[in-house]
């Protein structure tokens, strides 16, 4: 059975609250899970002790059993020092979109025309 350590959403609309659970990867996000491992409340401030609570003994047990943490849960575990920090790279994230590039080219062309016009007089 392919196990995952992931978030299961609870809470009302616009007020998210998550349980960190060990679940079969074939089950739905908020569906059946095997064990609750902790909680995550994104509405609390980042420096709050109550924001992320994990039962580290059980998390370590499931990691030893071969469970794969989701991306967000792996970030929690990295912050807690349980899992080695992974290198993440998205080189296209900082690159502007197509329309922004077109606007920049138009602006540069207008600036070049404006610079040439007084020089001809």
UniProtKB/TrEMBL annotation:
Residues 82-121 are annotated as: Disordered. Residues 111-121 have a biased composition (Low complexity). The keyword Ribosomal protein applies. Keywords: Ribonucleoprotein, Ribosomal protein. It holds the Pfam family Ribosomal_S16. Gene3D superfamilies: 3.30.1320.10. InterPro entries: Ribosomal_bS16, Ribosomal_bS16_dom_sf. Residues 84-110 have a biased composition (Basic and acidic residues). GO terms for biological process: translation. GO terms for molecular function: structural constituent of ribosome. One of its GO terms (cellular component) is cytoplasm. Belongs to the bacterial ribosomal protein bS16 family. PANTHER family: 30S RIBOSOMAL PROTEIN S16, SMALL RIBOSOMAL SUBUNIT PROTEIN BS16M. HAMAP family: Ribosomal_bS16. This is Small ribosomal subunit protein bS16. It comes from Shimia haliotis. The gene is rpsP.
């Amino acid at each position: 059975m392919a196990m995952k350590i992931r978030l299961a959403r609870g809470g009302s609309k616009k007020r998210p609250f998550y349980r960190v659970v060990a679940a079969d990867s074939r089950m739905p996000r908020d569906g059946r899970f095997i064990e609750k491992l902790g909680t995550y409340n994104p509405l609390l401030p980042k420096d709050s002790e109550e924001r992320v609570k994990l039962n580290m003994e059980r998390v370590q047990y499931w990691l030893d059993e071969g469970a794969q943490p989701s991306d967000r849960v792996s970030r929690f575990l990295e912050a807690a020092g349980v899992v080695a920090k992974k290198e993440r790279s998205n080189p296209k994230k900082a690159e502007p979109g197509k329309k922004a590039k077109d606007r920049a080219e138009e602006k540069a062309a207008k600036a070049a025309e404006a610079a040439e016009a007084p020089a001809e007089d």
